[in-house]
Specification:
The protein folds into 2 domains: about 260 residues, 3-Layer(aba) Sandwich (Carbamate kinase); about 100 residues, PUA domain (Archaeosine Trna-guanine Transglycosylase, Chain: A, domain 4). The protein is built from 14 helices and 13 strands. The chain starts with a helix and ends with a strand. About 40% of the residues lie in helices and about 20% in strands. By secondary structure, it is α/β, with parallel strands linked by helices. The chain is elongated, with a radius of gyration of 21 Å. The site of adenosine-5'-diphosphate has 22 residues, from helix 2 and helix 10.
């Protein structure tokens, strides 16, 4: 299997809490030492590796004696993360140092990777660190991120980091060896080795519960991560971290194939400087777009500018421009649909409505 681990220049590796933190609440040092050795092998082969490491909340919760693994309230999670992150960073720095590698810590919030200027800044920092031969170790800045502005799971964070780093591949190491057609705890669950397209059937397979009780997103956030990564041309694998040399992907895993057509189009959409007009949307629609949805008329507030169907337009949320995409309607018809539901639209337009004002396949988040 020639998934990027063997071939890409930049690889992002995400490590889940259940792998990093033992039942006693401490870092599983022996396991982490073997992963650090695996990373060092890749480094010597000329590959640049970025680590996205979970575990701060689980580590801190045990240290502070907090109930529910520190996830009982946002305040507990923030205190646990602040306490656990320092131990997590220490473990990574020490074990990578044992391999002759220098570690660097980057803590990011959702806004750092969503807002264009900050995204470019994070991207430049990652690039510089990698150029200097350092292994960046990234986590969400849980101790300052509030509920509305946090990823809450490192799977999607890792996908965003992989895109920001211009990585060719992303490996999510977990306590499970990939995606099954239903929760593997259920009888008859079947393993999927390759996913070409993430459709509703694939999404329905993933349960959002975390069996270990330490992680946060379960399989649902991993499939969401696969959507972000593959849509930007980054191949992704979910693999078990419990095998020898997990990064070689020699053991069973699930590969999500990168979309080779979308990136250029999306990069073009995202990179263009002019737009025929702007659709202003409410906070709910902005959140839906950020989660990978289409722009529905129900969430539109106002339309500026003149544009035809197929023109590039900007989409602006309450805090400014969030996306660029191709208009499904010309400006006049789009304006008539503002705030409407799909079952009202045929009567307003006099023809069969399209699914959205901007379809998610023709939308690039900025
Ligand atoms: N369809 C599925 N395929 C595989 N695992 C699933 C599925 N649905 C739910 N899960 C659960 O998701 C868990 C992995 O998620 P999680 O515990 O959050 O991992 P991590 O800490 O590595 O992020 C698995 O151990 C399994 O119990
Ligand atoms: N940022 C959190 C990790 C949240 C998370 O996604 O956990 P996991 O599902 O184990 O990868 C922490 O460090 O505890």
């Amino acid at each position: 299997m020639l998934f990027p681990p063997a071939s890409c220049q930049r690889l992002v590796v995400k490590v889940g809490s259940a792998l990093l933190v033992g039942a006693d609440g401490a870092v599983r040092r022996d396991w982490l030492a073997s992963l650090a050795a695996d990373i060092a092998v890749r480094h010597r082969d000329g590959q640049q590796v970025v680590v996205v490491s979970s575990g701060a909340i689980a580590l801190g919760a045990r240290r502070l004696g907090l109930a529910k693994g520190g996830r009982g309230s946002l305040e507990d999670a923030q205190a646990a993360a602040a306490t656990g992150q320092i131990a997590l960073a220490q473990a990574w720095a020490g074990l990578l140092d044992d391999q002759g590698l220098t570690a660097a810590q980057i803590l990011v919030t959702l806004g750092d990777l969503e807002e264009r200027r900050r995204y470019l800044n994070a991207s430049a920092t990652l690039g510089r660190l990698l150029g200097l031969g350092v292994v960046p170790v990234v986590n969400e800045n849980d101790s300052v991120a509030t509920e509305e502005i946090r990823f809450g799971d490192n799977d999607r964070l890792a996908a965003r980091v992989a895109v920001a780093a211009g990585a060719g591949g992303l490996v999510l190491l977990s306590d499970v060896d990939g995606l099954y057609d239903r929760n593997p705890a259920l009888p008859g669950a079947t393993h999927l080795s390759r996913v070409e397209r993430i459709d509703a059937a694939i999404e329905a397979m993933a349960d959002s519960g975390s069996a270990s009780g330490m992680g946060s997103g379960g399989m649902a956030s991993k499939v969401a991560a696969a959507r972000i990564a593959t849509g930007a041309g980054v191949a992704m694998a979910i693999a078990s971290g419990k095998v020898a040399s997990p990064l070689s992907l020699a053991a069973r895993h699930t590969l999500f194939v990168a979309d080779r057509t979308a990136p250029a189009r999306k990069a073009w959409l995202a990179g263009g400087l002019t737009a025929g007009g702007t659709i202003h949307v409410d906070a709910g629609a902005a959140a839906a777009l950020r989660s990978g949805g289409s722009l529905l008329a129900a969430g539109a507030l106002r339309i500026d500018g003149r544009f035809q169907r197929g023109d590039v337009i900007a989409v602006a949320g309450p805090d400014g421009t969030i996306a660029r995409g191709l208009a499904e309607y010309d400006a006049d018809d789009a304006a008539r649909l503002i705030g409407t539901r799909s079952d009202e639209q045929a009567a307003i337009l006099g023809y069969a409505p399209r699914a959205a004002l901007v379809h998610r396949n023709h939308l690039a988040l900025l």
